[in-house]
Amino acid sequence: MSLERIREEVICCRKCPRLVRHRERIALVKTRRFELEDYWGKPVPGFGTGRARLLVVGLAPAAHGGNRTGRIFTGDRSGDWLFEALHRFGFATSPHSVSRDDGLRLVGAYISAVARCAPPDNKPTREETDNCRGYLVRELEALDQVRVVVALGRIAFDGFLAAWREHGREVGRPRPRFSHGSEHRLDPRVTLLGSYHPSQQNTFTGKLTRPMFHQVFARARSLLKGGVARPGRQR
Question: How far apart are CA 119 and CA 167, in angstroms?
Fold first, then answer.
């Protein structure tokens, strides 16, 4: 299935009543900073190129970020961190992602998520992420050149592994465990890297610093340039 077809299916999805109500209410009520803007208010599809060698997997769109702009990690503080890092290491044409019409392109990269609707309190339920998993599985089928996956946060890490298994791929034993900077060789071609999510909770408290975040994407770039993957390595 093509990425465009997956995108169309995502945008039309209404599988999770709680998320449908929340995303549409947020789009109607808005927030004062963006009260004059038209909100997207629908599920947010993945973004990037079908020739991606790097796949970034996040948790879910932000209520006033992706749910407003219609592009994943766009228009919020987490996106500011992510696109700055992607640009620094050559995966994006700009460090700033403000709207889906801003001209930014990803270079050899694709961004997805384990949930496609903004959830209340940024916490999708297990049932909701299960409902969404098929979209990530189909993206994995379409993105057949991916060599490095960066999972942003434990839920994204575990959600990606669930999609990887559903895609018919082996996870291996011991099962990969999430930590910031963890590195796991999933098969001879694909390496999974773990990173703390660049949420305000993590960045404001110093749990995640820019050097820590940059280190993950520097490692991704090194692996794509032919660096040696270290099976099961955890930092």
Answer: 25
Distance of alpha carbon 169 from alpha carbon 225, whole angstroms: 24
In this structure, the strands spanning 47-48 and 109-113 are antiparallel
For residues 69 and 99, give the distance between their C-alpha atoms in angstroms, rounded to a whole number: 6
pLDDT in tens, 13-35: 999 999 999 999 999 999 999 99
Contact 130, 19 (CB under 8 A): no
- For residue range 169-216, what is the model confidence (pLDDT) as tens digits? 988 788 899 999 999 999 999 999 999 999 999 999 999 999 999 999
Contact present, 20 and 26 (Cβ < 8 Å): no
pLDDT, one tens digit per residue, over 146-160 is 999 999 999 999 999
Residue 231 included in any domain: no
- CATH number for 117: 3.40.470.10
Largest CA distance in the chain: 52
Residue 234: inside a domain, yes or no? no
| Structural domain contains residue 233 | no
Mean pLDDT in residue range 215-226: 96
How far apart are alpha carbons 105 and 110 in whole angstroms?
10
Of 93, 46, 84, nearest in space to 66 by CA: 46
What is the number of structural domains in the chain? 1
| Domain span holding position 192 | 3-224
Q: Is there a contact between 43 and 117 (Cβ–Cβ < 8 Å)? A: yes
Beta-carbon neighbour count of residue 164 at 10 Å?
A: 21
Would residue 119 count as lying in a domain?
yes
